[in-house]
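debug: dumping io for the single-chain case to check the tokenizer round-trip. Nothing else runs in this session.
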Amino acid sequence: MLPATSKLILAVLVTTVMSMVVSAQTTAFTYQGKLSEAGLPVTGTRYFRFTLFDQANAPIGPPIDQTLSVTAGVFNTAFASALVKADREGKVPERIPAQDILLVGVATHKLSRIITKESVTGFARAPFTRYKGGSGKGEVEEAPKGRGLRRAVGELLTCPYCMDQWISGAFTAGMLLAPRHTRVVASMFASLAISDGLQMAYVAGKQSTDF
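debug: decoded output
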């Protein structure tokens, strides 16, 4: 169990890092909409096609196709305007190096667990979730609460797989617009994930020698 001071430091660190990652998407924005079928709010997965337009009503880039989860009629999607900006500035590479994909993958996994499962970040989820119990290794089980948008946010904050796509998108945009800073942030979370694996291996090895 972490002492109170360590919990506070970790919470501040997570908030700061998320702000750094999101700040890399200087032209990105989020759109929220509601979807109904036969007059009833939709819950499930639906296919969407979006097109961005400038003030002169001219399309910006190609249409964006996404499959989104809809909860109680509410869906959220972040348009990758950062990708359009990077493309215009010639910053989009022909291919992404395998080491960057691995780095972003490991960092995304760890950060999504911190945001959706760690007990030290429970205070941020509290307005949208209810506590169900501990699940071991500093993690907790929670369930979304409320209705409408509040419940939709709760669904996101209790689902590490759902959170993955948002974090991965932020890291990927960061790799395009601010690669040096993004690699530093991603490396921190990736090293934390590796450390967690070593800690679990150490405990497992110690338990096996005790028998």
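debug: round-trip ok. The CA atoms of residues 6 and 136 lie 18 Å apart.
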